[in-house]
Fold this sequence. Notes:
There is one protein chain. By secondary structure, this protein is an alpha/beta fold. The chain has two domains: 2-162 and 355-377, Glycogen Phosphorylase B (Rossmann fold), CATH 3.40.50; 179-348, 3-Layer(aba) Sandwich (Rossmann fold), CATH 3.40.50. It has helices at residues 12-23, 66-80, 90-100, 112-115, 122-133, 143-151, 179-183, 203-216, 231-240, 255-264, 279-286, 297-300, 317-329, 334-348, 351-354, 356-377, and strands at 2-7, 27-32, 50-51, 84-88, 105-108, 137-140, 159-161, 189-193, 220-225, 247-251, 267-270, 291-294, 309-312. The strands form two sheets. Strands 3-2-1-4-5-6-7 form a seven-stranded parallel beta sheet, sandwiched between helices. Strands 10-9-8-11-12-13 form a six-stranded parallel beta sheet, sandwiched between helices. Helix 2 packs across helix 3, helix 8 (203-216) packs parallel to helix 9 (231-240) and helix 8 crosses helix 13 (317-329). The longest helix has 22 residues, at 356-377. Pfam families: Glyco_transf_4 (PF13439), Glycos_transf_1 (PF00534).
Amino acid sequence: xxxxxxxxxxxxxxxxxxxxxxxxxxxxxxxxxxxxxxxxxxxxxxxxxxxxxxxxxxxxxxxxxxxxxxxxxxxxxxxxxxxxxxxxxxxxxxxxxxxxxxxxxxxxxxxxxxxxxxxxxxxxxxxxxxxxxxxxxxxxxxxxxxxxxxxxxxxxxxxxxxxxxxxxxxxxxxxxxxxxxxxxxxxxxxxxxxxxxxxxxxxxxxxxxxxxxxxxxxxxxxxxxxxxxxxxxxxxxxxxxxxxxxxxxxxxxxxxxxxxxxxxxxxxxxxxxxxxxxxxxxxxxxxxxxxxxxxxxxxxxxxxxxxxxxxxxxxxxxxxxxxxxxxxxxxxxxxxxxxxxxxxxxxxxxxxxxxxxxxxxxxxxxxxxxxxxxxxxxxxxx
Length: 382
């Protein structure tokens, strides 16, 4: 089967998907809509994947560029002759593919494209509806995505759900490589945040809650990884509250070193306002860590408060602060909670098992396309 994988940029997530596809019985072509610079993947494409050169993929792309790009996309389709196109996010790559008239289209939601972006304005709603109307099968990572697609008239029977999953060998309980010792935090209570410093991820909520509790508990520490457009505001909040010396700014961490950070913490935090099945949440669970996350629909599918950790009211600083206090009070129970986290990851977040759903989605799309073609031609297969 020839698969054209059409994505917005080349990120670590794309590398993982392409690596999985290259290990299956597919001939894979990679098409990149734009180059944005944020969260870009530095590793080359997997050896078996063929990069497609076209008019896009070299700079940022605006919706006003879509009419100019569409002709180039149609040429790519004519040259590659894919059996299936895998395209996402919904309002960009899936929409462009739908505009090209190509079928069968497997659209992949990246979570926030349906859960947030789809309802931003009338144009977003029209584009979302159009893309879904011309989609054979929708790939999603959580029930919240299925429900949102259904609101746009998409049949839930044509949604293939799979959590993106993690490498359970790489992300597993173990030693942190001396990270806590190097920071001098062996006897401290350590929190970990690694979401991007962008409005959707609620880092401002997180650091405000941390500041509240850190003033009460001087041995509370925060490993704050990543970066983003809110960097100035985040640092200002911490400075005004006098807790900068209780924060380690780790910056961008390579995938190879990431497990060490999970292992070095006592509690993983996420204040995200929107998520599907969060990969970083699954990585924390796989490393056997208790978690404290916002009570958004995607997280509710993974965390039962008091079992794998705790939930707090989305956007509520005091609710998050109270959750941190509760975790500190229950330090002696964290090891048992961590075991429940790992057990859940083994049951539901195994990427080696979950990735097989991609092939199932492609085959479903091909079968539906063939049935529609037979129906339209008036023939019957015996």
